[in-house]
Amino acid sequence: xxxxxxxxxDSANEAVFETHLPLPDRRQGKVRDIYRIPDQAGxxxxxxxxxxxxxxxxxxxxPTPIPGKGRLLTAVSLRWFDFLRPLGLVDDHLVSADVAAVxxxxxxxxxxxxxxxxxxxxxxxxxxxxxxxxxxxxxxxxEYRTTGRVCGVPLPAGLRxxxxxxEPIFTPAxxxxxxxxxxxxxxxxxxxxxxxxxxxxxxxxxxxxxxxAAHAQACGIVxxxxxxxxxxxxxxxxxxxxxxxxxxxxxxxxxxRFWPAEQYRPGQDQPSFDKQFVRNYLLELVAEGRWHKxxxxxALPHDIVRNTMGRYQxxxxxxxxxxxxxxxxP
Length: 330
Hints:
This protein is an alpha+beta fold and 330 residues long. The chain has a domain at 125-263: ATP-grasp fold, B domain (D-amino Acid Aminotransferase, Chain A, domain 1), CATH 3.30.470.20. It has helices at residues 69-84, 107-113, 138-147, 186-193, 195-218, 276-287, 302-320, and strands at 27-28, 32-37, 46-51, 56-57, 60-61, 91-92, 94-96, 117-120, 123-125, 128-135, 149-150, 153-154, 164-170, 173-174, 182-183, 221-234, 240-247, 256-260. Strands 6, 9, 10, 13, 14, 15, 16, 17 and 18 form a 9-stranded mixed beta sheet that branches. The chain has a 5-stranded antiparallel beta sheet with strand order 1-2-3-8-7. A hairpin with a 5-residue loop joins strand 16 (221-234) and strand 17 (240-247). The chain is globular, with a radius of gyration of 20 Å. Mean pLDDT is 91; it is low at 1-12 and 323-330.
């Protein structure tokens, strides 16, 4: 059954900065709170992923949330899972997006979680970020200017910032619990998890990216790059099986570069559907000596919050059409 969702900037009355649910094994990332849903029969249970309204930039979580962001990003991921699943390339970890699937919650928690959760199969995460790049931007552009390569992949001379690459490339990165992920080449990634697995992940990443980029292009969006994460499903005994899953968020503005196709101009930075307004504001503070890219982050003005949410919303609307209501259960 498809896991449908819609999103609206008006669907959240109050921002959710963090959660403290009566569930075990709470972990907190930059944006998501993660819990374990116990199995009543004594098995390993499920994983609950809660998308909060936190926002991070330069690896620092800002103290000001973006109201509605968690619901909208969850809706984006659910739509992409629905889109990718029929391709038959890889299974995924999503079981349900229905808050009724989470036992033992008070009604106030259920209302707060509606539209911002994924109940997922537990998995042993492959410790490699799988990045596909179709355009030369971000850290890839910085590396190319120095070496003519990106993560060990040689590229033609004379490319400009944000140029379309001759063909999409696979550029893995290490996963960092804190601080920046580190770009690495394929051989280094293979030495960490094995050459056969990395070859499989490279193929999957590029095929998933190709399908998503084609859909985005038809919707007036350039999908410049994106990252995927994979893991092996855990069996009832908690040991990893050989079933590979696509996990975490997929193809959101937090994990991808989305550019408006009608404004695309190579040779410069591009307007984007992500936290561009936040980054630009913070860089102004850095230039003025008022912040130094270290915790704690500064409070965000109302117009930065509003404009950031507006860009996220526009990305959703272009990709999936303007919704008619709030999040719906699968």
